[in-house]
Amino acid sequence: MGHPAGVKRDRAKLERRRLKAARLLKQGLHQAEVARRVGVHRQSVNRWARQLEQGGAEALKRTPRAGRPPQLTAADRQRIVQGLKRGPEALGYGTSLWTAWRVADLIERECGVKYSTVHTWRLLTRVGLDATATRGAGLGAQGAGHSEMEAPALAGVKKNAQERGQTIVFVDESGLSERPHRVRTWAPRGQTPVLQFHFTWKTLSVMAGITWWNFYFKLFPGTIKAPQIIEFLPHLMRHLRRPLLVIWDGLPGHRSAAVRDFVATQGKRLTLEWLPGYAPELNPVEHIWGYLKQHELPNLCPRQLSELSSAACAALRRMRRRPTLVTAFWKQAELF
Fold it and tell me: 71 versus 237: which is more confidently predicted?
């Protein structure tokens, strides 16, 4: 009887059954009786009897499975481990993060063998590597009314914005620094990767506004205060021609007199709403920052702030070109 594809057979059990049949045959039992006792077809016993006659009981013992010959030699595997220790930057990648497809690229470059990401994961575990956290090592210095919006009222806000012909834009800010956002990467077991970075306090800030279909951003040196906010809002209005309903949190800069005065000069072109202070996760822009730091800039160790700025700008532009990401940010916020 055949075995379904993918079902593993107990090879040891099959061997015991064949050897039992051999013992019964040696005792002089008829092949039909042997087949009944071991629970197989008579043709199988007939085949085993011929093998027993030609090669003895050894002929009925299981043989090692030949399988597919390995594509990588022991020397190849050692080169892969050494390549992993050199880090992905040696291959031209911008961050010190080994992903499965980056390791697959390393294998192809070093050994000329193409592996899928799934096979790469299996190979990494076989050669004694593990996904582990990283640790850092500093290198030293080098116009409208405002209302408090409750979560249940969000659907009403959406409806009112549609009736007034407004585009809803959620706005938020985040900070970046030359110190890396550390995440897990591949490394030999027991050897925690060390990220060498400049331990400075220089920071970069980014402000973004997200609509249903896209997001818009601007980078600023240092922290974001009222002047930067006033610079960002016209940036939004240049990209979005319809009247805007900006929804953001209660950051002091958002409530500053300078921002209030600027909004007042815009008339119906710009309206503000406030997220409840207890629920910042309602803002989908928060998920932009999470994806940026966890997936686009993980383990990045820039040598200077301009390098960080370029990397962040390029990453955000890549993200903007992926509509499915924007949809995912909204779904994660679970707003409407």
Answer: 237
Say if CB 208 and CB 176 are below 8 A apart: no
Pairing state between β 194-197 and 135-138 = parallel
- In sequence order, the 6+-apart residues with CB closer than 8 A to the CB of 192 are 132, 133, 134, 135
Domain limits at 24? Answer: 11-60
Contact 286, 172 (CB under 8 A): yes
- Say if residues 305 and 202 touch (Cβ distance below 8 Å): yes
| Whole-structure pTM value | 0.52
How far lies 266's CA from each of 25, 33, 138, 148, 254, in Å? 99, 98, 47, 20, 16
Residue type (1 letter), 134? T
Same domain, 50 and 86: no
How many domains are there within the chain? 3
Q: Using DSSP, state whether 71 is helix, strand or coil.
A: coil
